[in-house]
Specification:
Elements (H helix, E strand, L loop, with lengths): L2 E11 H7 L4 H6 L14 E5 L8 E5 L7 H9 L1 E9 L16 E3 L2 E3 L12 H6 L4 H4 L25 E2 L1
Parallel strand pairs: 3-7
Antiparallel strand pairs: 1-4, 2-3, 2-4, 5-6
Helix pairs in contact: 1-3
Length: 166
Amino acid sequence: MCRHLAYVGSPVALAELLYDAPHGLVDQAARPRCQTSGTANPDGYGIAWYEAGQPGPRRHRSTTPMWADDELGRLAREIRSPAVLGAARLATPGLPVEVSGNAPFVADRFAFSLNGAVDGWSDGIGPELRGRVSPGRASAIATPGRRRSTPWPRSSPRSRPGARDG
């Protein structure tokens, strides 16, 4: 399973949450405690944060393990935010390891994360769920053996991909 971090409070450097905190997210990804599958979370990560005056979250994702990504260390020292969402990934067996599968996901002003797999996805529920979202979003939802894996919230006339990646 993936490891997650959520923070809301006074602006804080990402480094304080990811690296400096006792058993922070980077340490959890490399050396998880009480994890029932896998021995680490090496399949990439994602961090979303909010900046004052911006309409939605900024986001950085990578397929590099958190503990091995120099870019994350640089960003973590430079960015301060009052709201942060992060995830370190242990990919679902059968799904590709690619950045589109790494939480957090963003849509408009929202950032969200998830943990786990959908039981019965390959046994019929997948096409039913794909039928409930727009065709563009449906084509991005993962199926074991396919090359894309981005879950999206149910479409509505007002929802649209609008995230700014940072």
